[in-house]
Design brief:
- By secondary structure, this protein is an all-beta fold.
- The chain contains no helices and 8 strands.
- The strands form 2 sheets. The chain has a 5-stranded mixed barrel. A 3-stranded antiparallel β-sheet has the order 2-1-3, with no helix packed on it.
- It is globular, with a radius of gyration of 17 Å.
- This is Zinc ribbon domain-containing protein.
- It comes from Streptomyces achmelvichensis.
């Protein structure tokens, strides 16, 4: 887990990505920024932690057919399992956040504009240890009829 990027002591209902908001210009950043405002038109430097929207809309998506770099764990001695990457637009924050889809979702299950929500995910379960590395995943929101 990357410290400070998401809540981690709560259940799925309360799980949120964490960003920072500049108190001078209201720009929101993810990954978080704690040193200075990344908005080139702002000279502000005071940033406050803010939870990002739990839901957003698919902006783009693709399948990952290569072994990812660290910190993702990928044993070259095992068969490779493709994964689905999703770029999600968070309207309130005016940003796009990249992440993996939940494991059971493929590109065939997604469409641009579809509503998705952020949920906790597992990056790696340390083989032979009790260590579980956590991350976030995007999951399509069930459409009620």
């Amino acid at each position: 887990m990357v410290a400070g990027w998401f809540t981690h002591d709560s259940g799925e209902e309360d799980f949120r990505l964490l960003g920072t908001r500049c108190t001078a210009c209201s720009s929101v950043f993810f990954p978080r920024e704690d040193a200075f405002c990344r908005n080139p038109a702002c000279s502000g430097g005071e940033l406050a932690e803010v939870p990002l929207s739990k839901r957003g809309r698919v902006w783009s998506y693709t399948d990952g057919r290569y072994r990812p770099p660290a910190p993702y764990v990928s044993d070259p001695g095992t068969e490779w399992e493709p994964y689905t990457l999703v770029a999600v637009e968070l309207a309130a924050e005016r940003m796009v956040v990249l992440g993996q889809a939940v494991p059971e979702v493929s590109v065939a299950d997604l469409a641009v504009g579809m509503e998705v929500e952020v949920v906790p995910g597992v990056l790696d379960e340390g083989a032979g240890t009790d260590t579980v590395l956590t991350t976030w995943h995007w999951r399509p929101v069930a459409v009620s009829s």
